[in-house]
Amino acid sequence: MSAEQRAQRKCTSCGINIAGLSAASFDCPECGHQLHRCERCRKQSNLYECPDCGFTGP
Predict the structure, then answer these.
(1) Cα–Cα distance between 51 and 46 in angstroms, integer?
(2) pTM over 0.85
(3) 34-51 pLDDT tens trace
(4) Which residues does the UniProt record annotate as the domain Small zinc finger protein HVO-2753-like zinc-binding pocket (predicted)?
(5) Structural domain tally of the chain?
(6) By the 8 A CB rule, do 51 and 33 touch?
(7) Which residues contact 14 (CB under 8 A, 6 or more apart)?
């Protein structure tokens, strides 16, 4: 992943810019869109919504 791609990652749950190793990146279970979650939202199990298909998850 390039530095530019890392700089553009935003948490799908809260919208903050993601930096660091504790963030998670994964594909949406419904459509495969790349999603990112920050450490805080992962720990708190905050809901996320895929911007492409509307799938929501914990």
Answers:
(1) 16
(2) no
(3) 999 999 999 999 999 999
(4) 11-54
(5) 1
(6) yes
(7) 38, 40, 41, 46
